[in-house]
Design brief:
Elements: E1 2-10, E2 15-24, E3 34-42, E4 50-60, E5 65-75, E6 84-98, E7 101-117
Antiparallel strand pairs: 1-2, 2-5, 3-6, 4-5, 6-7
């Protein structure tokens, strides 16, 4: 499993983090599951962070591989006096949806950590 932080869009209200993930497809996986990230940000904010996926694409690439790109909102923005922030992907749940239900079929445990130097905006 490989996770790459492609970019971070910084806004006054929050950030948008763009990720790419790649993993080998298991032989037993006929239907491709959808990844869901469990995220954390350091330093802590005075308000708890909220995260949600804003969009994504991907699935089967070359036979035996899966590649996805996803964007996650991070709200609020890290404290303005912080010189550095760490975005941590704690785990990735692979989920299947159908008939109004959601089923976690596997979990990849991290953490994958990405350190970002913050400059004043």
């Amino acid at each position: 499993m490989a996770v790459t932080l492609l970019s971070v869009e910084r806004y006054r209200e929050g950030h948008v983090a763009h990720f790419r993930m790649f993993r080998h497809r298991k032989r037993s996986e006929r239907d491709l599951p959808t990844p869901h990230f469990e995220l954390a940000v350091i330093p802590q904010s005075s308000m708890p962070y909220r995260f949600w996926m804003m969009g994504g694409t991907g699935g089967g690439g070359v036979e035996g591989e899966m590649e996805y790109r996803q964007a996650y909102a991070i709200v609020p923005a890290p404290p303005s006096d912080a010189s550095e922030a760490v975005i941590e992907v704690r785990e990735i749940s692979w989920e299947r949806f159908g008939a109004g239900t959601r089923k976690v079929v596997s979990v990849d445990t991290g953490p994958w950590r990405f350190s970002i130097r913050l400059r004043p905006t």
